[in-house]
Amino acid sequence: MQAAGAQADSPQVDQPRGTSASGVVGFLYRIRTFESFQYSKFRMLWVASCGTSGGYFLQQVVVGWLMYDLTKSPFWTAIALGLDSMPQLVAGPIGGVLVDAWDRRKLLILLPMYQATVSIGFGVLVLLDLVGPWHVIGFVVLMGLSWALIEPSRMALTPLIVPRKNLINAYSLTQLAFSVTRLIGPAIGGVLLAVFGAGPTLLLEGGFQLSASLMAFLMGPQAQPKTPANLKGVWVGLKRVAVYARATPLISGLLLCGIVSPLLVVPFTSSLMPVYQVEEFEVGQKELGWLLAAIGAGSIIGGVLMASFASAKRQGRLLFFVIFFSALTMAAVSHIPYYWAALPIFVIVGVCFTLTQTLSSALIQSNVRDDLRGGVSGVLMATWGFMIFGSILAGLLARSLGAPNATLIASALLVAFIVFIAVRFRAVRQLP
Known about the structure:
The chain is mostly helical. It has 18 helices and no strands. The chain has helices at residues 24-31, 40-71, 74-82, 86-101, 104-127, 133-161, 167-195, 198-218, 231-247, 249-265, 273-280, 285-308, 315-333, 339-367, 373-382, 387-401, 403-424, 426-429. Helix 4 (86-101) packs parallel to helix 6 and helix 5 runs antiparallel to helix 6. The chain is globular, with a radius of gyration of 20 Å.
């Protein structure tokens, strides 16, 4: 799929390495599910992605448990778990424009170092028993600021190190990194939380983030097109992105599809998980980790499916079907009162989440203009800023009606939302 005005594969794309018949990477490449791993810089970027997302999921386990333990409030728990996305609503588009002007690799070195510093500092405060609810909120906001630049940097760097024909596969594998750590991170976090407590778990989170910084450093320099980084340039860049997105129904529709998960899926499943754990399933901290890990297992399945069938036809219609099936799965979650019965349902939630995110982001990157790639990536990241609104709604509904009824209402809203997008933006439905 080529967008209008798209350029040919950059000559600076990393050359394949390690693809000999006897090499492990060569074997994975021949499977085609893992074909982008033939590029050495992409392999390093993938490991860096594992580091940052691994730290994030440890953080989610700690923040959810810590806030509920401090407040006993479903509302504040949902707010704390969704608040790190709020800075992205404003900073995401600005960050995307800055990514087009700054060195993306250097950003991927420095920002995880910043995250590690914040995580370790907060972990020390927890160990000293100096933390209250507002400290948790401050920690989440400080961490959220960095994601406004990390994700657009990663998304915009990928086309510089893999050819355009491999982009959907590469983005699928990046989502798979997110999914692998979504499985392992909560499981490890739940055990560490139960055995050692919140402070040591936060120190380990800092270690994950430092490993991501190291892998980005080892990638070596990477040339990229740049635009001047000044206030006027940022404002002009924002206007260009806004005009382009509004004038391109395909991009507008796909960006709206990107809002689905942060607004109506994650706040009513993952963010309400501590509430389900205590009030519905009546299980402990280890079981909370396994509930979140179930979503991670589904995410891995979804990531492998997407990477394996990156060339499937009718991907726009597939995207709508997956979102509709997400709504049905959420309705099922709201009717299951037992812990063990909920685990396979949350696996399906993870599959649908990954397919939705991978399809929407990969289709955008496959069709967007090269000179606006960072800016549009920033807007896509900004859609995660809507998670705070979904978290507020989830918290209010769960407090007054209970978590199951809140999830059921969200599933109905999700159906209505996706029907609107499918009718209004035919360009997405008509993707070949």
